Each structure stands twice: as structure tokens, then as C-alpha cells.
Amino acid sequence: MADILHRVGVERSSPERAYEALTTVGGLSGWWTEKTSGDTGVGGVIEFRFGPGGFDMKVVELDAGRLVRWEVMDGPPEWIGTGVRWDLRQDGDYTIVLFKHEGWREPVEFMHHCSTKWATFLMSLKQLLETGEGAPEPRDVRIGDWH
Amino acid sequence: MADILHRVGVERSSPERAYEALTTVGGLSGWWTEKTSGDTGVGGVIEFRFGPGGFDMKVVELDAGRLVRWEVMDGPPEWIGTGVRWDLRQDGDYTIVLFKHEGWREPVEFMHHCSTKWATFLMSLKQLLETGEGAPEPRDVRIGDWH
């Protein structure tokens, strides 16, 4: 098993605002993909769509202002059965966002790509919270031939 | 053991140019840190300095246009004994840069930070190769309270 890990510190925000950006369709579509829909409550499934495909995430755990956990229900074969975990907290002037995409069966090349791409989306989340404007798909940062 | 993985695709470049950016003081100081010095040949030690500290990397393997491997000799305690591996190849119009920072003893929070920070430096490398201008320290992208 292999995990993708990331961490950003967001200025002029709060764990509550970060939590909102992770648990509402409006928030999620402001930093990940504009094509976000579905039920963001526990047990609900959120559909994230991108040019070449997308992901269906089941919301498996929510702790307001602290924790969000998703399980991948549909998407690329490498993603099925993996989970995404967000831990939030305030450290002084910074809202700390700890990210883990866990349970990859193999560290395949696609996992390398997803790791870098997640980093750019975490920077998009940080930017959304700090400035009100993120860079969700289709305005996302391109990192290579795999988008 | 845990690894940080990344992948970028660089346009209008070549594995040879990417290799040069990873194996010369001029290249490395154009995307990672301006304060780069030392011996970039096999067995040599390259010193990378940043505001809060730095890393000494021993060059343990070089294969022109294909592979660069470093071993961390000095730096933060979590980095000692870890290794960094770069694999390069051309895929159509893109130079593919596969990155691995391998052998972390524990997936500590600092590893989360380093993973995101490496992603921004890979984007800096991509930018250097595509435009001639990267974003090395001290002009690097800030990702949070840990720089």
C-alpha cells in the first residue's frame, strides 16, 4: 500500500471555512472541478467530473472544522478502494490542511502524476480560501501530457 | 518506509536538457535554490542552502539523459538516509520527469509538507525548461507556515 501526502498552510482563513470548501458543492467546485454535484452529507456520494472522466466519492466521515473522509466508489481502476482524508486545524495565523490519498495498491506512474496534480489542487484550495478565487478544472494548472 | 512520488511532463524540451538542469550547479540553481554549490559528478556532494537550513546530497548514480540519484548526507533528521531519484524519458512531445524521494522512516507531518513543496519545485523545473525562468528559493512558491 502507498499513500499520497500533502500539507498546506492557509492564511486569513479558518478550519471552519476550509471545512466548508470541502463539504459543499459550491466550495468543492471552487477549487477542484467546476463540474461537482451530488450529496455532500455522510453516506452521500459526490460526483466530480473532469474532461477525461471523473470520480465518485462517498462521504464516510465528517467532523465539522476538523475532518473529512471520502471513499472512492468510481473512477480510474487504480483509485477504486482508495480513500481520501482531510485533517484541519488552526496553528497560529495558519489554517493547516493535511491531506492523505491512501491505500494505493502499487506506486504506479499514474500515482506519481496524481500526487503532483493533488498538490496543484491543494494550492488551488489555498488560493480560493485566501483570495476568493481558486483554479478548478477547466482552469486548473496543467502539469504535463496527462493534464 | 514511505516515498514521495511526483511526475511532470515538460514541453519544448528534451531528456538531455532536463538532465543538465539536474546535474549542473547552473541548472539546479535555476529551479531549486539559488544557493547551490559543490561537485555534481558521481561521488561528489552538492550543497543546497535555503533560508532556514539546507541539504547535502551525494551523487550516487548518473546515466546521461536518463537517471540521476542522490543520497541525503546532511539536512533535517527526517531526511538523513533517504534518497532522491529522477528518471527521464521522452514521450512524444513531452519530456517526462519521474521523481521519487524514497525511504522516509515515518509518514510524519513534515513529509506531507515536503511532498507538496517538491511538487512546486518540479513545477519550477518544468517552467525553467519551458521558459528559461524557474522559481528557485528565494523566489519559490510559499505553501504555508513552513515555507
CATH superfamily of chain A: START domain
Q: How much helix, percentage-wise, in residues of chain A?
A: 10-25%
Mind describing the biggest β-sheet of chain A? 7 strands, antiparallel
Residue-averaged pLDDT of chain A: 97
How big a fraction of the residues of chain A is strand? Answer: 35-45%
> Which runs of chain A of at least 5 residues are low in confidence (pLDDT < 50)?
none
Shape of chain A: globular
Stated plainly, the CATH topology of chain A is called Alpha-D-Glucose-1,6-Bisphosphate, Chain A, domain 4
- SSE string of chain A: EHHEEEEEEH
Account of the 3D structure:
Two copies of one chain form a homodimer. Chain A is an alpha+beta fold and 147 residues long. The first copy, chain A, has a single domain (2-131), classed as Alpha-D-Glucose-1,6-Bisphosphate, Chain A, domain 4 (2-Layer Sandwich), CATH 3.30.530. In chain A, 24% of the residues lie in helices and 40% in strands. Chain A is built from three helices and seven strands; from the N terminus they run βααββββββα. Chain A has helices spanning 15-23, 25-28, 109-131; strands at 2-11, 35-38, 45-50, 53-63, 67-74, 83-91, 94-104. Chain A has a seven-stranded antiparallel sheet with strand order 1-7-6-5-4-3-2. The radius of gyration of chain A is 14 Å and the shape is globular. The model of chain A has no long low-confidence stretch (mean pLDDT 97). The interface between A and B is medium-sized, with 34 and 34 residues.
